[in-house]
Design goal:
DUF6691; transmembrane; membrane; 6 helices; globular; transmembrane helix; single chain; mainly alpha
Length: 146
């Protein structure tokens, strides 16, 4: 049941991303081009998402735990540190350059456009590199501590 629920949620999300135009890099890039061909329609998409998400989170967090998990998976900190800022900058720059964010790129794979596959490949490579860097840092910290 857990996987079926995840599949249905993913289909709803992907459909919403496709209908909103967020899988179209030109539309996304025009959203960022405030001084040129600015297209504010994605602000309405994001605003609509917030209108659904905010009450949804309030409703869900009234429960002791999720339906199909033992507990909620929430960040352990609210600290704004260098890692968070650099990650946010990297995400924003990548979104502005490519016109894709991970949430929009995965449903866009269905279009068969080669640039989408290149972006998702680069995304996966970046995730693996970041995981490797984090592992090396953890090993160095453990070695220095002992």
């Amino acid at each position: 049941m857990r996987y079926l629920t995840a599949l249905l949620i993913g289909l709803v999300f992907g459909t919403g991303i496709a209908i909103s135009g967020m899988i179209n890099p030109a539309k996304v890039l025009n959203f960022f081009d405030i001084a040129g061909t600015w297209d504010p329609s994605l602000a309405f998409v994001m605003g609509g998402a917030l209108l659904v998400a905010i009450p949804g989170y309030r409703l869900v967090f009234r429960r002791q735990r999720p339906l199909f998990e033992t507990g909620f998976q929430l960040p352990g900190t609210t600290l704004i540190d260098t890692r968070l800022v650099l990650g946010s900058l990297t995400f924003g720059i990548g979104w502005g350059i490519a016109g894709f964010c991970p949430g929009g790129a995965l449903p866009a794979l269905g279009t068969g456009i080669p640039q989408v596959f290149l972006f998702v490949g680069a995304l996966i490579a970046g995730l693996l590199i970041a995981r490797g860097v984090k592992m090396v840092q953890s090993q160095r910290q453990a070695a220095h501590a002992s």
